[in-house]
Each structure stands twice: as C-alpha cells, then as structure tokens.
C-alpha cells in the first residue's frame, strides 16, 4: 500500500471499512495529503454513500472543503457541541462566528 498515492491509499482504506457494511462511517481528515483530483473522487464516494442512506461524519479543520461537501456542520469546543449549522446557513462567516463565540453566546 505504501507505493500508492495518498488519494489511492484513502480510497483503499474507505473500501476496507465498507466491506463490513457499516451504518455509520466516521472519517477524520479523509482528504489530508491528497491531490485535488483525489479529493473530488473521495467526496463523490462519500456523497454516494450518504445518498444510499449511510450516516457519514467528517471530522476536519478544512472549512472550505466542509462547506462545499456537507449539509450540516457542528462546531465543537472542549468536547462539546457549541453550534449547529444546517445547509441554509452554511457560510464561513457563520462558522467563524460560532468558533470565536463563547458557549454562552452561541446558546443565545
């Protein structure tokens, strides 16, 4: 597997997990270290899985990538969810505001 590109390595890993037919797939940084073309391919695979009814959670600090590919973003701080943004209010400004606010401010 070491001879594969970063994108192909990620696809192999996702494929391995899919062999057990999970109901939920949790991916941490699924596109870290891969080229742009592989990122698109990986997110097409993830979207197809979600369209087929699989739950998908992506943990990432790549905000532009999340905004482009997710229908909901949760902002966490110190292990707690401090904000939830649905598709209709997904914007960099809204997310950054949630990240910068205190838990008390976000709850209001």
Automatic annotation (TrEMBL):
InterPro entries: ABC_carbohydrate_import_ATPase, P-loop_NTPase. The keyword RNA-binding does not apply. SUPFAM superfamilies: P-loop containing nucleoside triphosphate hydrolases. One of its GO terms (molecular function) is ATP binding. Keywords: ATP-binding, Cell membrane, Membrane, Nucleotide-binding, Repeat, Sugar transport, Translocase, Transport. This is Sugar ABC transporter ATP-binding protein. It comes from Brucella intermedia 229E.
């Amino acid at each position: 597997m070491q001879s594969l590109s970063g994108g192909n390595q990620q696809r192999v890993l996702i494929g391995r997990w899919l062999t057990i037919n999970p109901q939920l797939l949790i991916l941490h940084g699924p596109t870290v270290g891969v080229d742009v073309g592989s990122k698109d391919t990986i997110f097409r695979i993830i979207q197809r899985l979600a369209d087929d009814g699989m739950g998908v959670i992506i943990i990432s600090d790549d905000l532009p990538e999340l905004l482009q590919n997710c229908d909901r973003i949760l902002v966490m701080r110190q292990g707690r969810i401090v904000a939830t943004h649905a598709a209709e209010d997904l914007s960099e400004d809204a997310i950054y505001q949630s990240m910068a606010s205190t838990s008390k401010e976000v709850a209001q």
